Amino acid sequence: MEASSSRIPIKFFIQGLGEVEGELVRFRAPRTVDALLRKMPLEGRAALLKGGFYFTVPLPMGLEKPVKTVSSGTIAFWPLGSALCLFYDDSTTYSPVSVVGNTTFIDVLREVQMGTILRVEKV
User: Fold this and answer.
1) Which fold has domain 7-122?
2) Positive or negative CA dihedral for 61, 3, 20, 116?
3) Separation between Cα atoms, residue 118 and residue 22, nearest integer Å
4) Nearest residue to 93 via CA among 50, 57, 123
5) DSSP string over 46-101
6) Count of helices and strands (H, E) across the chain
7) Total-model pTM
């Protein structure tokens, strides 16, 4: 993926499964994306949710352009759980999220188990 000021390439390292490329899209949630970039690399353990998974990140942010429905491949920040979420199915979220980016590598995401170690960093 080519870097630009509005689309920032990132990579998820998923324990035992490999790497997944994605991108943060600044115009979707500019304050949240900038805060995530300042905190990278981020690491945590996966917790499962309907249609995806999440891991907690040290980011005290509120909602920005909140949505409750996401499509497969969505990367979102969930303020209620202070977590970064990846969705492999179209889903309705438990509470609103801020969409921060996307990925197209859905098949690998489906294999993530509870407790899998994840790390995300800027490419």
Assistant:
1) Cyclophilin (2.40.100)
2) negative
3) 14
4) 50
5) -EEETTEEEEE-S-----SSEEEEE-TTEEEEEGGGTEEEEESS-EEEEEEEEEEE
6) 2, 10
7) 0.93
Domain ranges of the chain: 7-122
What are the tens digits of pLDDT across the range 2-25? 455 799 999 999 999 999 999 999
Q: Give just the sign of the alpha carbon dihedral 53, 105, 71, 6.
A: positive
pLDDT at 117: 97
Q: Region 114-119: what's the mean pLDDT?
A: 97
Give 70-91 pLDDT, tens digit per residue. Answer: 999 999 999 999 999 999 999 9
Cα(48)–Cα(63) distance, integer angstroms: 21
- For residues 89 and 44, the answer to whether their CB atoms sit within 8 Å is no
Is residue 58 reached through a cis peptide bond, with omega within 30 degrees of 0 on the bond before it?
no
Please tell me the distance from the alpha carbon of residue 15 to that of residue 112, in angstroms, as a whole number: 9
- Which distant-in-sequence residues (6+ apart) come within 8 Å of 4 by Cβ? none
